[in-house]
């Protein structure tokens, strides 16, 4: 896990972080709204009304952390690929009827904290808080979808998909803003759309008992996360931030 003790961001980087927080606040309101069937699951991974910034380590002036581009690529690639594996495992548990998948939740939340720490190391606490708000919400929406698939509630499935679509658009805007346009909005949106399709199709197959198809979709999901990780890491490297060196 990346140690996230960096100097406070300054200048353009500070302005970007403030903008990220403002964007996240807007996105939290949008993602939490919506009519129609209640897509919520009895399984709560994250309390999305809580402040995820409580878990973000404080910055410590005078103790900067300098990451190499290779370290950023490795960290994001590992963490995002693991995320796909862990969220699929938790969706499987929920889809199979387990309303108390404690071990799966613990593993997924640890992975999420690793991602938050990585973003903190690059963009500081403001960026990490904005990331965490969006990331935690999308995780819960996937679990809501898995529960809806399990109980065959098509209305709840549609509601979960609507929230995931909002997420993919909002998170794409977050990534584009954080990377100063290095990761283009349209391209990131398309990558995230595929991620949502992969995991929802996976749980549909899993719940239906189509084991071979589910395994193929999971393999595809993990492979696709490597593509997302590379796109984000490349954009971060191109920014030439003080916290990321060649």
Textual characterization of the structure:
By secondary structure, the protein is mainly α. It has one domain. Helices cover 71% and strands 2% of the residues. The protein is built from six helices and two strands; from the N terminus they run αβαααααβ. The protein is globular, with a radius of gyration of 18 Å. The N terminus is likely disordered.
Q: What is the tally of beta strands?
A: 2
Q: What's the main sheet like?
A: 2 strands, parallel
Assembly classification: single chain
Could you report the average pLDDT, rounded to the nearest whole number?
Answer: 83
Assess the beta-strand content as a share of residues: under 5%
How far do the termini sit from each other?
20 Å
The helicity comes to over 70%
What are the low-pLDDT stretches, counting only 5+ consecutive residues below 50?
Answer: 1-19, 21-37
Shape descriptor:
globular
* Overall number of domains: 1
Instruction: Please provide the ordered H/E string of secondary-structure elements.
Output: HEHHHHHE
Structural class assignment: mainly alpha
Radius of gyration: 18 Å
> What is the number of helical segments per DSSP (H or I, 4+ residues)?
6
The main sheet orders its strands as 1-2
């Amino acid at each position: 896990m990346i140690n996230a003790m960096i100097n406070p961001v300054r200048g353009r980087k500070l302005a970007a972080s403030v903008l990220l927080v403002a964007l996240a606040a807007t996105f939290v309101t949008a993602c939490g709204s919506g009519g129609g069937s209640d897509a919520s699951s009895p399984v709560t991974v994250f309390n999305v009304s809580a402040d995820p910034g409580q878990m973000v380590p404080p910055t410590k002036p005078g103790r900067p952390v300098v990451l190499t581009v290779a370290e950023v690529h490795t960290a994001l690639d590992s963490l995002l690929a693991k995320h796909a594996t862990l969220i699929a495992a938790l969706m499987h548990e929920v889809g199979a009827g387990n309303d108390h998948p404690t071990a799966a939740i613990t593993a997924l939340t640890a992975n999420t904290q690793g991602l938050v720490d990585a973003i903190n190391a690059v963009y500081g606490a403001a960026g990490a808080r904005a990331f965490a708000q969006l990331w935690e919400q999308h995780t819960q929406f996937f679990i809501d979808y898995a529960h809806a698939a399990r109980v065959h509630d098509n209305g709840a499935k549609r509601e979960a998909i609507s929230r995931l679509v909002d997420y993919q658009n909002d998170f794409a805007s977050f990534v584009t803003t954080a990377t100063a346009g290095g990761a283009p909005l349209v391209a990131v949106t398309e990558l995230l759309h595929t991620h949502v399709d992969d995991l929802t199709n996976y749980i549909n197959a899993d719940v239906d008992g189509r084991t071979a198809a589910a395994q193929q979709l999971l393999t595809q999901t993990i492979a696709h996360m490597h593509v997302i990780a590379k796109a984000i890491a490349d954009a971060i490297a191109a920014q030439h931030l003080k916290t990321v060196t060649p």
